[in-house]
Structure formats: structure tokens, C-alpha cells
């Protein structure tokens, strides 16, 4: 998902570096645990306890309420679609899809939303508006985790993206720890790191390359690619995986210490949900190291090439399927967790 931070101080690059170092430090233990975690999450990723029409009797109008509010807000601010999708992704990849990313920090605990990878997230006011409307109709019934999953789907649909049916029945978590956000997939990750991270959530290599297609929308700050442009190996060089003819264009936009300028993730169509991301990656013009990494693996590179070159792209259909799968990672169901009255606070 696109990395777009609201930090503007010179320390941003240091924080990005620390995130990457923490990610790499955790990788060895992550790989060690992949088989065990994959077994655990394979059960959870199947969404035991989730089903279509979960609120049919307790809150039958919930999906219509969400759709109405999103249909009002996204056309006025279409750039919100990308961060709302990313919010769902970041929630599911830390502790599972339990809306822990929505919890505010307290004096005794720094929550996920204040972890460095999540400082760029925005759109919380949209989630709050939906929760308020849903609570007015069905108090104490619908979880924030389900609302977040529905909002992400409807926001993408509002920008002419695919529509998928969302199994519901998630419950909200009661724990949110900022440091755990450092385990999110890093924009500097190589293909081995990415595959291990996704496998630990019960997601396949195909899910990895398909969900990376979410980078077809949104923006990122220049600071996220400064190292690729100006100091890739610490010798003032450029990442050789970047198209050399594209580098001058990026350098004309981004200076080495620029922390404010925004880049389009998918130049020319960053507000349109389409397959152009794969065309860019195939041309070696993906913005992040993690985008370029997709060309270094047989399975992911084959998918990139297929979507970039085939007139009959399967990306939209594949994205629907992978989003349903991702939305079932580590879910709390039954009597686990709670139904938060406010998404930003545990009850």
C-alpha cells in the first residue's frame, strides 16, 4: 500500500531507515515462524465465524448506511479512497482485521495509529461518520472492524474499482501497540521478505502480487524514494532496478532532502483503479523497492507481465478475491473481543 507520511521534519528519513531496520531485524524470526503462523492464520484466513448477511436480523440496513455515506464523501474527496484501502490493509496485517489501527493512544500506551508506518493514514473521520450513523440505527451491534472492511470496499467502488462481497461478523480488538506496526510490509523489502510476511498471514504469492496492485491509486512523499534516487548503496548511486530513462524525471521532482512533495503512485491515473500499475512495474518504473521486487521472482514477474501485456486483464477479479481473503486474517468472532461504541476507544 502507498507510503505517504504526514511527517515534515528532517528526521523523517531517519524514521524510514529505522522502520526498515526493524523490519529486517524481525525477518529472521518471521521466517522461523512462517510455518506455524501460516497454519494458524490459514484457519483464521478462512474466516471461521464470518458470513455474508451476518447482520441480516440484527442490523439489516448496515451495508446501505455505509454505501450512502461513502457515496456522499468520496466523490467530494476521491483521494481518500487510497488511504481508506490502506487503512484496512494496515489493520489486517497487525493483529488481524480487528480495527486495532483505529484506537487512539493514551498516556499509558502508544497505539498502532501512532506507529511510524501509520502516520500517513487518514480518513478516520469517515470511519467515525459511518460508525455514528450505524450506532444510531443499531446501537452496539456492528463492529468497527466490519465497518472498516465495508468502507474500504465501497471507497474503491466509488472510484470505479471492483466491488466484492464482504463476509461480516468481525469483532473489535482491545489491544493496539505502536511498535507492532513496524512489522508491516516495508516499501524497502525484497521479494523474500515480502513472501515471508504474506505467508505469515496465510496469504499466497499470488495474493502478494495482486494486493500490490493497490498501488494503482494514491500518492507518496519524495522521502520514500530518496534513497533509491540518490544513495542506494551508500555511495551516492541510484537503484539500478529503476529505468535509467525515468530517473531524471523523478530527480526533477524530488530533491534529496524533500519531505513534502507528493508523487503519484501510478502516474497519469493515480485516482483510477486500473491495471496500469503493472505496466509501470513491468517498465521498471514502480515507485518502491518492494514494487521493483515483483520482477525478481518467477511467479510475481509472470503475473506482472500478464497484466501489463494482456488485453484481457484478470486484475480486477483477482483483486476482489484477494481482498476477501485478506479481510479474514486473524479475525475475532463469537465472544472474542468486543463491539466498540467508539472506534477510537476500547469500551
Labels describing this entry:
43% helix; Peroxidase, domain 2; single chain; globular; 347 residues; Peroxidase, domain 1; 2 domains; 2 strands; mainly alpha; disordered N terminus
Q: Explain this structure to me?
A:
This protein starts with 11 loop residues before the first helix and ends in a 21-residue tail after the last helix. The chain has helices spanning 12-45, 62-73, 81-92, 124-137, 144-158, 191-199, 205-211, 226-230, 247-253, 276-282, 289-292, 298-309, 315-326; strands at residues 219-221, 262-264. It is built from 13 helices and two strands, in the order αααααααβααβαααα. The protein has a two-stranded antiparallel ribbon with strand order 1-2. With 347 residues, the chain is mainly alpha-helical. Mean pLDDT is 89; it is low at 2-12 and 27-45. The longest helix has 34 residues, at 12-45. It folds into two domains: 12-185, Peroxidase, domain 1 (Orthogonal Bundle), CATH 1.10.520; 191-322, Orthogonal Bundle (Peroxidase, domain 2).
Main sheet record? 2 strands, antiparallel
Number of strands: 2
Poorly predicted parts: 2-12, 27-45
Q: Specify the structural class.
A: mainly alpha
- The radius of gyration computed from the alpha-carbon positions, rounded to a whole number of angstroms, is 19 Å
Short summary:
With 347 residues, this protein is mainly alpha-helical. It contains 13 helices and 2 strands.
